[in-house]
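Tip: read the tokens left to right.
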């Protein structure tokens, strides 16, 4: 039995769900998300919760069952509370600045990198961080994680001096470097 798939997804107040054929639409105070799920599964709403059911105990159905339930739970959490990824910039002269809604990064390249946010994504650079902390906020967990990974991809942390963009709290294993001449 799928342990994740068996649990019902509770709908908080102000969050509504509409289920039509193979589509689930979740709307809340932060926005609206839609998911197309496998026609082999059934999703039904029971009072203030959503229940995902599978037809058989085949391995394929068990995998889809847990996956679909987890995606619906992430949608409910996203439209009610939202998701946030925090990135940290380390390095002399490395900095992030907001230009309207766009994020401008100075990461040691010959040019400044300008990143435009996708729909439902916002960037925030706290003033007290002096441009070394970036918050990526949004309602879709997958998109927030992908945008954060794209930002990190412009200058991943290197192991010798530790310079680069990393997730807040990410451990970067440091190397000693050259031993020098004898």
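Filled-in amino acids:
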């Amino acid at each position: 039995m799928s342990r994740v798939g068996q649990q019902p997804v509770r709908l908080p107040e102000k969050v509504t769900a509409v289920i039509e054929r193979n589509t689930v639409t979740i709307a809340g105070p932060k926005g609206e998300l839609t998911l197309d799920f496998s026609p082999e599964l059934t999703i039904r709403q029971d009072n203030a919760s959503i229940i995902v059911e599978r037809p058989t105990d085949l391995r394929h159905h068990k995998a889809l069952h847990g996956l679909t339930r987890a995606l619906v739970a992430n949608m409910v959490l996203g439209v009610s509370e939202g998701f946030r990824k925090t990135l940290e910039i380390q390095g002399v002269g490395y900095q992030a600045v907001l230009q309207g809604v766009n994020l401008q990064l100075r990461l040691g390249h010959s040019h400044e990198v300008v990143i435009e946010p996708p729909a439902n994504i916002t960037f925030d650079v706290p003033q007290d961080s002096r441009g070394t902390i970036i918050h990526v906020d949004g309602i879709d967990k997958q998109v927030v994680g992908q945008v954060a990974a794209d930002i990190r991809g412009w200058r991943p942390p290197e192991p010798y001096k530790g310079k680069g963009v990393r997730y807040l709290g990410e451990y970067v294993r440091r190397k000693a470097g050259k031993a020098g001449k004898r």
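DSSP finds three helices and 13 strands in the chain. Helices lie at 3-6, 59-80, 141-153.
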